[in-house]
Amino acid sequence: MDKKALFIVFHGFDPNNGISKKITYQINALNACGIHTHLCYMEEKGNKTRMVDGQIIADYGSGLKSKILKRTEFSSIVKYAIKEHITFVYIRSNHNANPFTINMVKKMKKAGMKVVMEIPTYPYDAEYLSQGMGKQIFQDRLFRHILAKQLDAIITFSDVNEIFGKKTIRISNGIDFDSIKIKKSNTTDSSVINLIGVAEIHPWHGFDRVIKGLAAYYAAPHDTIVKFHIVGYFFFANDELMFKQIIADHHLEEYIILHGKKHGEELDKIFDECDFGIGSLGRHRVGIDKIKTLKNREYAARGIPFIYSETDEDFDDKKYVLKAPADETPIDINRIIDFYQHLTLSPADIRTSIKHLSWENQMQKVINYILFAHNTD
To answer: What is the C-alpha separation between 233 and 231, in angstroms, rounded?
Structure first.
């Protein structure tokens, strides 16, 4: 019998959303590795419904009851998995360890399924607390060790060997090379350097450090024009107000372009105009040092150099990477200019350096460990 997987997310699925795109790439990779994979997700337009590949497996209706059921009713998932002879369940954690998720995994294990859970960011407590969401994570803290005990492994993009007492499978955020276009050769004025930061913007991205760095740069004599293109939306409205205030206070309107959310050809066009990527510069604000962000990999796949402040073992030694200190100092713009002007690698050189980070290679590590008991180290 062919091996079949069920990929479970506890939220909605939007093809244009960054997280949903990543999930699509992971599912495509599992299929390419020979594991026929189905996607289970929530649809919340109108009635709240639990879906698998576009088909309803549970309709929770609307109102308060539906909000409760979407967080507690998982028997429909178990029934589907048993009926379809699923052998491998891949859960994307929503930090929702509770008696209901524990019971779901127990039933899957009893039916002979292998079950793993991906924790996209670890540790994550400080991230929740920094956003004033301590209540949301209280229940998870109570039950996550019990949930972990039921799993076969936890997938992590960190370098830790164990999370909540369970052995980890350490992988990197991957790249779907077919979906990311390489940057066209730069034909713009060499006296102008265009920086780009793409994100659903949170404080841990630290883009404010770049803006403050630009304020210091333009307050002093300078020869090169440096512009910062920010692509994406601000998760918190107050952050957007703060950014705009800093821009206005230092008269940087000409040099900082807020593009809003872009994707597809519009995003490709902006990348073609830009020279240097801005990765995360504030992970220290939420207590994270070692992480393998998707954004670093996307910049490399585009073929542009970039800067970040965390530890990322896939990129720390690369010649096209500039490391920033993990603190609150403004980014030194002159340092970026000097680094960029002395870089001799082409976009193709940069992209080629990460071919091993394809999603297919990363998901094969999970398959090898879970289904064939091969160590990923």
So the answer is: 7
- Are 285 and 205 contacting, i.e. CB atoms less than 8 angstroms apart? no
Average pLDDT over residues 80-87: 97
Element housing 232 (H / E): none
In what side-by-side order are the strands of the sheet with 55-59?
Answer: 55-59, 49-52, 36-43, 4-8, 88-92, 114-119, 153-156, 166-170, 162-163
CB burial class (10 A; 0-12, 13-18, 19+) of residue 253?
exposed
The CA distances from residue 103 to 92, 114, 116, 285, in Å, are 16, 15, 15, 35
CB environment 311-349: b (16+ within 10 A), e (fewer): bbebbeebebbbebebeeeebbbeebbebbeebeeebee
Please give the share of the chain, as a percent, with pLDDT higher than 70: 96
Q: Which residue has the higher pLDDT, 16 or 358?
A: 358
Tens digit of pLDDT for each residue in 213-226?
999 999 999 999 99
